[in-house]
């Protein structure tokens, strides 16, 4: 059956909007504290567990969707996510929240997340940066769309019932969007995998990819960038209240602007990377992130500047999520993109714990400085990366010269 490739993009955005509601987690922090009397730092761990589990699940989901296609894998993920939220509505202990929302719900997110992304990159070999940005823009936009919905549900029905209603919403819309996901015909995949540019990747298996040093540099770069973004996103309301002395109502508006700029950043940075290159774009993103974090560490902002800086952080964070799928495809090919990006994505998953650890260990301002230094280190790492295909060609050329 002939498929319009833009329908695949539509399905991808549809799915990702619902998955991206996870970025509105900070809205749950205080209601859970007020309802159950739990410590805030323990409640926030739920978000870290969700991100880490979802990242781990992308390895399994990536390999599976490479074999059977994205439709059924994403459908299974939508079912799992819905079940996790429905069970969360019955939770009365932190352990239950960790299991139901963090592990089961996080598994559903991870099962689904990689499917639309991998499919879209394969359908658009000529616009990898832009299309991966669009494919994940919905994930960033999810927090913007669901923020007022979650606040309304919590205020009117309580935090537990909110999980119940969200579980139904996620189940219906993720499963519906998953039905539009398809891999392209074999001939298009072959074309997209053919070396057409000097820096086009050959096809690396996961084992071959793990033997190349650029993977590890990129992995740590991904960790540093996403750690910086998640540190602000997951604690946005708390930063506004504790650091800049805002009331919780105004501080919660940061979630809206972060989500909006997060989505915009994924498209804009992806488009820019198609023009000036992935690593050049990443260096710009890391530089802007570092400057913003250093400014935030001063702790002297008013409300408009609080929204402005959190917007910039959301904009830059979106760039990391948009660019690394394309970088993985550029360096290691599209044949095994699902599993390969699943491995690269682990940097993102671990970053949720690293960011939360820094915030719990250090005052916000010091944690911002540490994250800024990590971003500067990522810029240096980007400068020394050599393309793995170029390394292979260099080795072959040297052998030919020796033989001559």
UniProtKB/TrEMBL annotation:
Residues 4-390 form the Major facilitator superfamily (MFS) profile domain. It is found in: Cell membrane. It is a multi-pass membrane protein. The keyword Membrane applies. Keywords: Membrane, Transmembrane, Transmembrane helix, Transport. One of its GO terms (cellular component) is plasma membrane. Its main location: membrane. GO terms for molecular function: transmembrane transporter activity. The chain crosses the membrane at residues 7-28, 43-60, 72-91, 97-117, 129-150, 162-181, 215-239, 251-269, 281-300, 306-327, 339-358, 364-386. This is OFA family MFS transporter. It comes from Natronobacillus azotifigens.
């Amino acid at each position: 059956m002939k498929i319009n490739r833009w329908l695949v993009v539509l399905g991808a955005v549809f799915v990702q909007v619902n998955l991206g509601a996870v970025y509105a987690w900070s809205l749950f922090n205080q209601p859970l504290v007020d309802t159950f009397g739990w410590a805030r730092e323990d409640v926030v761990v739920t978000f870290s567990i969700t991100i880490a589990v979802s990242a781990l699940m992308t390895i399994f989901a990536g390999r599976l969707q490479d074999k059977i296609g994205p439709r059924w894998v994403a459908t299974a993920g939508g079912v799992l996510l819905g079940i996790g939220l429905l069970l969360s509505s019955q939770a009365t202990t932190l352990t239950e929240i960790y299991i139901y929302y963090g592990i089961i719900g996080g598994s559903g997110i991870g099962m689904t997340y990689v499917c639309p992304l991998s499919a879209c990159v394969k359908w658009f070999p000529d616009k990898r940066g832009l299309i991966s940005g669009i494919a994940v823009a919905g994930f960033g936009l999810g927090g913007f769309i669901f923020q007022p919905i979650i606040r309304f549900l919590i205020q009117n029905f309580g935090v537990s019932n909110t999980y119940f209603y969200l579980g139904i919403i996620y189940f219906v819309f993720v499963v519906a969007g998953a039905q539009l996901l398809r891999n392209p015909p074999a001939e298009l995949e072959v074309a997209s995998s053919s070396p057409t540019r000097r820096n086009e990747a050959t096809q690396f298996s996961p084992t071959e990819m793990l033997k190349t040093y650029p993977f590890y540099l990129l992995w740590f770069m991904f960790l540093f960038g996403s750690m910086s973004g998640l540190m602000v996103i997951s604690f946005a309301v708390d930063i506004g209240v504790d650091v800049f002395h805002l009331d919780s109502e105004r501080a919660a508006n940061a979630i809206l602007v972060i989500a909006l700029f997060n989505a915009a950043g994924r498209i804009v940075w992806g488009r820019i990377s198609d023009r000036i290159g992935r690593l050049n774009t990443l260096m710009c993103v890391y530089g802007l992130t570092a400057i913003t974090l250093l400014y935030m560490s001063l702790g002297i902002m008013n409300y408009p500047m609080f929204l402005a800086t959190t917007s910039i952080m959301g904009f830059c964070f979106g760039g990391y999520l948009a660019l690394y799928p394309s970088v993985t495809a550029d360096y290691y090919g599209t044949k095994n993109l699902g599993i390969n990006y699943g491995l690269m994505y682990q940097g993102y998953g671990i970053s949720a714990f690293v960011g939360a650890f820094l915030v719990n260990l250090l005052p916000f301002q010091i944690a911002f400085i540490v994250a800024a230094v990590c971003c500067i280190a990522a810029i240096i790492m980007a400068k020394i990366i050599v393309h793995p295909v170029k390394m292979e060609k260099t080795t072959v050329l040297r052998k030919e010269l020796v033989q001559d």
